Amino acid sequence: MSYARQTLDTYPRTLSIDADRLAFTIDALSDCAQACTADTDADLSEDNLAEMVRCIRLCLDCADICTATAGILSRLAEYDGSATTALLQACAAICASCGDECERHAHMPHCGVCAEACRRCERACRELLDALG
Fold first, then answer.
1. Residue 60 DSSP SS3
2. Cβ distance 72 to 26 under 8 Å?
3. pTM of the full predicted structure?
4. Residue 9 covered by a domain
5. Nearest-10 crossing angle of helices 109-132, 19-44
6. Which of 1-15, 60-74, 89-103 has the lowest average pLDDT?
7. How many other CB atoms sit within 10 Å of the CB of residue 56?
8. Which domain holds residue 111?
């Protein structure tokens, strides 16, 4: 069981959304941020650094947006539905862009891992958006 799920299980109020779906999304966001951060570092070590600039920038943006979204989703009291929706939409969009770029470089294993994390996170954000209605 993830820490996100364990924490949600201790929440003193009734959740308005399925705790498993929320925990899965928070975990996907955290995993994606970590994968993007690690991929950025690996990209910076590649010989063809000039070819990796777009990938590096997208990974940095994706990591930042995923981290912010995970933080907002983890704070449930007095949550702002409009802001949450906007963040999830932005997160799904940057994960799609970053995943596309990393797939272009999937011959490098670190980019392949990052692409997978981005795709999982994009799906999780879209599914949570659907659940929020």
1. helix
2. no
3. 0.92
4. no
5. 150
6. 1-15
7. 19
8. 19-132
